[in-house]
Amino acid sequence: MNKEDFCSYELSLKLKEAGFNWECYEFWDTHFSDDGTPIKIRKTQSEPKVCVMSECNSILDYIGSDLITAPTLAKAAKWLRDEHGIDLDIVVRYTPVNKTKLYAVNIGCIEDDAVNHIYLFERVDYEIALSDGIFEALKQIKK
Fold first, then answer.
1. pLDDT at residue 32 above 60?
2. How far apart are CA 137 and CA 143, in angstroms?
3. 51 pLDDT band (50/70/90 cuts)?
């Protein structure tokens, strides 16, 4: 479960497999820990006030790096929308009885000239709902 603004290591891998190749400033690295646990790192410059260059997965692969881009959840959702026409809709549902709220996840895409809406699930946290929704939306990408 991911409760932060960035895609988890597992989600970042799935995005890369699906063709995500947008530039990012955050990366997952498995070399910092002895057991290979992925750690999110930020690309930095030693010089202050120097523009930090971002990288994309194809450049990282080309230079032989094991790093994987770690996009924000918003960037991953935008990629799904812009590159594959898949929209994620997160709707808050209030439950007045126990005064809680849940985030409902819907996926919308056009298939064979028809709009396909898929109601998925509800989660207690927005970021978890968005992360789980991206995982499910990746299954809609036609290879």
1. yes
2. 13
3. very low
